[in-house]
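Onboarding guide, step 5: your first structure request.
Type a short instruction followed by the sequence, for example:

Predict the 3D structure of this protein.
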Amino acid sequence: MSHFGFVMFLAFGEVALSAALDHPVRQEVVDRVNNDNTVGWKAEEVKHNIFASRSIDEIKGMMGLRDYGKTPREFAWSFDKTPRVNNGLRVGDIPEAFDGRDKFSSCQFSIRNQLNCGSCWAFGAAETLSTNLCVIGVANEVLSPQDLVSCDKTDHACHGGTLPGAWDYMQSNGLSSDSSDPYACGDGCSNNTGVPACPARDSPKKCPVQYSSLNSDQEIQAAVMTVGAVEVGFFVMADFMNYKSGIFHSTSKQTLGGHAVKIVGWGHSGTRFYWIVQNSWGPAWGEEGFFRIDNWREDNESSIAIGGGWACVQGPTPSPPSPSPPPTHCEDIVDYCKDQVGTHAQCKAKSYIVPLCKKTCGCCDPDPPAYCSSSVEESPDDLIV
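The system replies with structure tokens like these:
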């Protein structure tokens, strides 16, 4: 069935499962995956699987992402092949692989565990904003998912939430630090009847300007390269509950629900493009709390990031790791430049020689003199007489 001819919204609690379906964690799935060298990932043994003892309803209850669609956002790619986010950010060529955990190592925080609460939407948002604000130099602290669970009244605490709702809340109110408002709903908060009241905030942190909604894979990649993380959604298929390592690709048709996570990088394995993703199921799960998964174009069932992504990328951005590249064709194009021009004073006094002697005149430097941009605009051919 094509995912591109219609829009299908998945509401939490409306997953197409019957009570008679098999438990997603079972030896049959483990054996099928681990005995097939072509699947690209390994399954956790049932006896070590942290979800083996949970009921199907308890597992479904963890999938708290509401209103996640399977129709992709507009595919954006500029004509010059330079990716942009919607505020005009340019990052140059996107590499084959990138890992924000290495690039922004000082802005990595401990893997969290949402436990028995459908609060993934809050964890993904709080953890993404924590990394974003650290990278751009606004704050270096873990922000509170409990703030969202208790205070975001447009969403539904342990019964789920939406990504736009979470980011709208954070934009308006900011988030408290996790140390001042620690997570308290790991037990489900008595089916939402025991959610702690929204406390007074202690110096909440927020994106310095309007957050960005990212509409394509390339925009998500550009944002990760710039601010370290992007929150996205995907559909948890039944076989995903057996994941241990490798690049996940679902072969199941059983959907458990929508789940919000934090993209921190990507890579390629042959022709396969995959995301590197931080989960909120604790450090003992998966690849030390992370997983890799095929892009939505390869795994239409999981559809990770097909609905776009959210991050704080419009505020201040970090300094580039190296000087800006020199202007294109920045060089001396006539032989007499070094012998007859010699000094920057001559370049300033005789602006007509600047286009001919850009290198000698200092126009190839990272911080070129003002006369480089104010010199005559004639082509070099016009100036050679």
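Each response can be followed by summary notes, for example: Residues 1-19, 75-88, 317-328, 375-385 have pLDDT under 50 and may be disordered.
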